[in-house]
Amino acid sequence: MINLDIEGDLPEGITHAQIESMASTILQKERPDTRQFLSLKLVNSKEMREYNRQYRGVDADTDILSFQGEDLLLDGVKSSFSNIIIDTNQVFNQKGLKTYKEELWQVLIHGLLHICGYDHIKAQDKQEMEDLEENYRRLIPGGRLG
User: What per-residue string of b and e applies to 54-92 under the rule 16 or more CB within 10 Å gives b?
Assistant: First the structure.
């Protein structure tokens, strides 16, 4: 089960319901025993740079920040409160030959996997995360990668 809050403007053609469906699919598969409360915030580059500086101590641009909350018991159910922040300008700038929507989906999937505990620091972990991203990219609604 997922409770999703979105702040900021979604790109045309991506709906709250689509994001909720994708997030539910990933989070239920990767953390099936946990009720998820997810906040997604879409910001500009100036805001993101400030968040990056504030939370990571890094004065640089980044496309996404993911914050996995501690698991808590809420009404007897293991629950997690997580946050994802996406820099929509950075997503647009790094899209290459993909559409903006495709790149946003890719970045969101990446962030969702981070809040499930995956990372890409070690080569083996990076490969595992990339394989999972590729698997979930096939589920993108209405995209070339879907």
Answer: eeeeeeeebbbbbeeeeeeeeeeeebbbbbbbbbbbbbe
